[in-house]
């Protein structure tokens, strides 16, 4: 079904950070579900910085007769983000929903966070989200004149001690 757009209300999801019902730790997310059932009709472009996780998720989607491709890329590098969208465009032709769910942080008191640690979190959680949104807009949403972006952030409703860097990145 390469380059065919679904028109019956199903969405193709681009996941910035991978995960499935098999693994919901470390900032992971679930594959697309429609009406509480796994969405097997549409494509699932899967991305993560770790190849093993990408391969595991792609395999788990294909194991249930789903359609998936994988890309190993660092979302904090805009040139790598562009490659995610290029391969997605080649494989599926369209994307209707972007779920930004990549996250990376570590607990530390503010006085102990050095520049390298601060920049790693800001580059992943803030810049990576921006790069994904920009490339999604340029590759899909602007030409399609429609699209949905879902940004998953940290659960900070009761405070997030020791996480000033992630709070700043997701403010």
Tell me about this structure.
It is a single chain. With 171 residues, the chain is of the alpha/beta class. It contains four helices and seven strands; from the N terminus they run E-E-E-E-H-E-H-E-H-E-H. The strands form three sheets. A three-stranded parallel beta sheet has the order 1-6-7, covered by helices on one side. It has a two-stranded antiparallel sheet with strand order 2-3. A two-stranded parallel ribbon has the order 4-5. It starts with 12 loop residues before the first strand and ends with a helix. Mean pLDDT is 74; it is low at 1-36.
List keywords for this structure.
three-stranded parallel beta sheet; 171 residues; 7 strands; alpha/beta; globular; two-stranded antiparallel ribbon; disordered N terminus
